[in-house]
């Protein structure tokens, strides 16, 4: 449950004192302080770091960590990226496994998506997932946000975003994150609240409600 004023849905750093954060970790980061000291983690099968040789060890690490580490509250980031060098068929293979593990272990799926919306929506239609699918670091335009929301996705926004997209997301589908950035969350929340035409306190409570429903209600 959220016991601090602010929630960071996706980060690669240890949380700030006033922030409850979910730290995304890969298999090769299992000795890093961000992994060892994080109060909550998501386990990653990131398309950038996939190879034919390491996909199976990564999947085995995911399963082992999910089963043994009570800090795991999400799976991801996982997803599809047409700009990176990883063969796309290997990305699809890994993402399908991530979907299956998300459903099996009742974990929300944090998604990295770059120029792969068509494939992402096709897989969503195929699997009809019971678990939430969350697009992390969403930077798309209002039209793309509308399409993803219509299909049931949640959108998580970092410091770089399209204002019109952020402004139209329903309060119960919105998350905020730092990702790799050094984010001053009180200022970030005030900026977002102003853009959305809501109060700072209302935004804080809405994000907390979403976080507790998605990640801490198992």
Descriptive notes:
This protein is α/β, with parallel strands linked by helices and 218 residues long. It is built from eight helices and eight strands; from the N terminus they run ββαβαβαβαβαβαβαα. It has helices at residues 33-36, 55-68, 88-104, 117-127, 142-150, 163-168, 185-196, 200-215, and strands spanning 6-11, 19-25, 41-45, 72-81, 109-114, 133-135, 154-157, 174-176. The chain has an eight-stranded parallel sheet with strand order 1-2-3-4-5-6-7-8, with helices on both faces. Helix 5 links the parallel strand 6 and strand 7. The longest helix has 17 residues, at 88-104.
Secondary-structure map with pairings?
Elements: E1 6-11, E2 19-25, H1 33-36, E3 41-45, H2 55-68, E4 72-81, H3 88-104, E5 109-114, H4 117-127, E6 133-135, H5 142-150, E7 154-157, H6 163-168, E8 174-176, H7 185-196, H8 200-215
Parallel strand pairs: 1-2, 2-3, 3-4, 4-5, 5-6, 6-7, 7-8
Helix pairs in contact: 7-8
- Anisotropy-based shape: globular
- Number of helices, counting only DSSP H or I runs of 4 residues or more: 8
How far the N terminus sits from the C terminus, by CA atoms, comes to 11 Å
Provide the β-strand percentage band: 15-25%
Report helical residue fraction: 40-55%
Which spans have pLDDT < 50 for at least 5 consecutive residues? none
> Pairing-aware structural class of the strands and helices?
alpha/beta
Spatial sequence of strands, sheet with the most strands: 1-2-3-4-5-6-7-8
Average predicted confidence as pLDDT = 96
> What order do the SSEs take from the amino end to the carboxyl end, as H and E?
EEHEHEHEHEHEHEHH
How many beta strands in the DSSP annotation? 8
- Major beta sheet summary: 8 strands, parallel
What oligomeric state do these chains adopt? single chain
What is the alpha-carbon Rg in Å? 16 Å
């Amino acid at each position: 449950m959220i016991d601090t004023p602010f929630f960071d849905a996706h980060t690669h750093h240890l949380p700030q004192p006033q922030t409850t954060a979910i730290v995304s970790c890969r298999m090769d980061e299992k000795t890093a302080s961000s992994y060892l000291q994080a109060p909550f983690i998501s386990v990653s099968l990131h398309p950038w770091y996939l190879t034919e040789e390491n996909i199976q060890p990564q999947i085995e690490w995911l399963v082992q960590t999910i089963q043994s580490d009570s800090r795991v509250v999400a799976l991801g980031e996982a997803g599809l990226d047409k700009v990176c060098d990883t063969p796309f068929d290997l990305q699809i293979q890994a993402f399908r496994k991530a979907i299956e593990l998300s459903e099996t272990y009742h974990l929300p799926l944090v998604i990295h998506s770059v120029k792969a919306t068509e494939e992402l929506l096709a897989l969503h239609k195929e699997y009809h997932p019971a678990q939430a699918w969350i697009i992390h670091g969403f930077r798309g335009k209002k039209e793309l946000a509308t399409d993803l929301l219509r299909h049931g996705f949640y959108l998580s926004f970092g410091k770089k975003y399209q204002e019109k997209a952020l402004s139209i997301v329903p309060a119960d589908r919105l998350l905020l994150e730092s990702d790799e950035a050094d984010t001053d969350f009180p200022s970030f929340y005030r900026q977002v609240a102003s853009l959305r035409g809501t109060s700072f306190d209302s935004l804080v409570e809405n994000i907390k409600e979403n976080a507790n429903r998605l990640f801490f209600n198992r």
